[in-house]
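Lecture 7 notes: from sequence to structure.

We start with a single chain of 114 residues. Read the sequence below before looking at the structure.
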Amino acid sequence: MAVSRTPWLGSIVLPAQNTAYQLSARLALHATPPLVSLNVLIAQAIAIQLDISAGAANLYIGPQEVSTTNYGVALVAPQVWPIYSMDSNLINLDHIWLMSDTASTQVNISFITR
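Now the structure, written as tokens:
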């Protein structure tokens, strides 16, 4: 895949409210340009932003059981949550789940692989 050392920048939509979505699955299904290989879904760095158009929506980031009371990070528009793994690809995007309390929430994603 052509994202080596170059950020992949794009947006995904969380269609239903209060539904947990696996980040890697949303990227594989709805990313533009498409992510051809799921092997790239281990990143060196990632930033997740709740789009500025989200209004009063809240974005919850956490484990598969993410909820409004069980999350690692909660964002409001247009906050960003960055994660860095220094020089290695240690961030497994399969382990990041997203949930919004509002339907059709746009989330902006950027990540770098090596």
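Strands lie at 8-14, 21-22, 42-43, 45-50, 58-62, 73-76, 80-84, 91-92, 97-100, 105-112. Keep this in mind for problem set 3.
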